[in-house]
Design brief:
By secondary structure, this protein is an alpha+beta fold. It has two domains: 131 residues, Sandwich (Jelly Rolls); 81 residues, Winged helix-like DNA-binding domain superfamily/Winged helix DNA-binding domain (Arc Repressor Mutant, subunit A), CATH 1.10.10.10. 34% of the residues lie in helices and 24% in strands. It is built from six helices and twelve strands. The strands form three sheets. A four-stranded antiparallel sheet has the order 1-8-3-6. A hairpin with a 6-residue loop joins strand 9 and strand 10. Helix 3 runs antiparallel to helix 6. The radius of gyration is 19 Å and the shape is globular. The N terminus is likely disordered.
């Protein structure tokens, strides 16, 4: 079997777009499961040694789920969008299992908390909700595998470039002015945390990509990625 890189590993997987993951819309409308908490910017929703005994849904704001490397540097594992569940790995933890990660409010955020048992009871009573929740697990697994591929690259340009292509498929917005270019609202600090690189290393590497006209950014303007050119550049040789 050929292992040649075809450049398609960061495609949008349009065949999967009809599969609907679990969101706030699937929760009972009577509010029985909805325990709302507000977290200020920088506050932790859970810490590494907290019990994995509940699932969360983001109603407003933004949340990042993070871990730390051996030197104590924080690495962003995922950024949660409004409506999405997070902390769903409580279903994979052993009884009285710990989180082993940290979830933090990036900005002031409203979060719905549901106990593991209450949510499990709900899924067992609603087949459509269970189906959507399984799809959510599958999407999260796919995203985790792509992040693993990104972090497996040792070269800074390769790692950061492939991270950008991954973010294009999960967080990008098509440019209304130029075809094949995608806008990303992400800072160098976030990229450093996601790529497990230093902030200064990210800045230097992004400068190299910009000089190659693969990415474009200026102060107070969002990052724009030329997807075909960046893909071709990473797959050269």
């Amino acid at each position: 079997m050929s292992t040649e890189n075809t450049g398609q590993e960061f495609s949008n997987h349009q065949a999967c777009e009809t599969l609907t993951g679990f969101t706030l819309e699937h929760l009972p409308q009577d509010g029985a499961l909805r325990h709302l908490q507000t977290y200020q910017k920088g506050n932790d929703i859970w810490e590494a040694d907290d019990l994995a005994d509940r699932i969360y849904f983001l109603k407003k704001g933004q949340v990042a789920v993070m871990t730390s490397d051996v030197e104590g540097h924080e690495i962003i594992l995922s950024v949660i969008k409004v409506g999405e569940p997070f902390g769903e790995l409580c279903f994979c933890s052993e009884e009285k299992g710990l989180r082993m990660t940290t979830a933090r409010a990036v900005i002031e955020s409203d979060v719905i908390e549901i106990s593991y048992q209450d949510f499990l009871n709900y899924l067992q009573s609603d087949a459509k909700a269970l189906h959507s929740f399984v799809i959510t697990f599958c999407k999260r697994l796919s995203e985790a595998e792509r992040r693993t591929e990104v972090l497996a690259h040792r070269g800074a340009e390769n790692r950061l470039g492939r991270l950008l292509l991954h973010l294009v498929t999960t967080r990008g917005h098509s440019s209304t002015q130029e075809n094949n270019k995608v806008i990303l609202h992400v800072s160098h600090d976030e990229l450093a945390q996601m790529a497990a690189m230093s902030r200064s290393h990210v800045t230097v590497t992004m400068g190299k990509l910009r000089r190659q006209n693969l990415v474009f950014y200026e102060r107070s303007r969002p990052l724009t990625v030329d997807v075909p050119l960046l893909t071709a550049y990473l797959n050269r040789d």
